[in-house]
């Protein structure tokens, strides 16, 4: 009897290949000619059959959900969690600059697969992406996602304990590793479906802290406590039914440390900063989109809110108030540095801004501070700064002796000096901003020592004192008063002649009468 020899390896491969090819051919014909209903029915049941024999469960976590409004927090957390694991075992990695630009953070590259173990259970993570169908105007978008695979016997443990653990750990790793960012809204921006975000950013590296801020110690402590209490009040805010956000209004003359304080706040709380340029925002809809794209643990800043848009009088303005407008124009001319910007392109309204601060959308994200700064608090619409919107009003004022001591310690490493007494005496009489004090304490040449810098400051204070004595202070006492329906302005002029102060009261009738 002739026994057929066993098939060789190459014969086996050829047989398998031709079987698969025939199966694929039949499947293609089936898909082509089989009616859609029958095909759907069969596909549905073949899926069920497969899942009956296939013992694994898959969970996908997509980068963007819904209408791509914001990046999924779960995705970011998984990404951070896997960065630790994948840096040990994945073969293709992505590298990104980490905190303080001192190290590289590695994470798994696309289509890479890593395994993880939790309570003795093995799971697999794959990073992947699909291309969304292209829309006429915009290029195709990549939709990234992570897929977790595990055995169905461990469903309870994985969904109940492992996934929450991954998210918790991932969030902590993100806070540890992340570089804080300073965002700005760039003008001329189109829509998020074209570009992924409406904000551009750089690394936030401002060195200001509350230790270096020249401020009375009690005031400083009060602000720090307020901020720290806010960060720990998540449960409190949800209990009282309020969005977890807080508004700060920083006001005071130029050079008193408003911008510096924002940097100190961000450094204290480890928050990102979103510097919102209102004049570059097209309309209220765009303002809302910008808000949605901000992340939690951040400070949204609108600097010089009185100059950003003409929001000051929108609620009160009436056609008949032309005279008051003229007066306002005159006032604005007196303030050359803070001229109102031309707002032809921005259609953001006061009500849009009010909604931005505490409308329904403002609650998304949570744990955010909104900070306004202004030099002219009295020019703002009261609705904009009422408590609830701007919860804490902080006045930053001229340099006190206590504040000077902080600057002397920072700039000259001095805690006490015989010249301090003279400076303290002068500061009681003279208004000088911390910015001016800081400038005088700055050594101007390598030979300048602490004594020279203090002498510079005393000289500057003396000069200011003389200038203030000579100057005629024009102090506006009341505005928008009327006589018989006509607007007038009451002013007191204080003149110093031969060291004697004299007060003159003056009524000004408007030119349009
Ligand atoms: N309170 C302060 N503590 C420490 N430094 C200060 C303080 N105020 C001002 N300075 C110094 O003065 C400079 C200007 O301050 P800053 O920009 O914070 O003032 P501002 O109040 O924001 O002024 P503006 O109203 O013109 O925007 C800062 O670089 C900082 O060095
Ligand atoms: Mg400023």
From TrEMBL:
InterPro entries cross-referenced by the UniProt entry: AAA+_ATPase, AAA_N_dom, At3g28540-like_C, ATPase_AAA_core, ATPase_AAA_CS, Mitochondrial_chaperone_BCS1, P-loop_NTPase
Domain AAA+ ATPase, residue spans: 244-400
UniProt xrefs under Pfam families: AAA, AAA_assoc, AAA_lid_At3g28540
Catalytic activity: ATP + H2O = ADP + phosphate + H(+)
Biological processes per GO annotation: response to stress
SMART domains in the record: AAA
Cofactor: Mg(2+)
GO molecular function, one term: ATP hydrolysis activity
Keyword Repeat among UniProt keywords: no
Keywords, sorted A to Z: ATP-binding, Hydrolase, Magnesium, Membrane, Nucleotide-binding, Transmembrane, Transmembrane helix
Positions of transmembrane segments: 12-30
Family: Belongs to the AAA ATPase family. BCS1 subfamily.
UniProt protein name: AAA+ ATPase domain-containing protein
Organism: Jatropha curcas
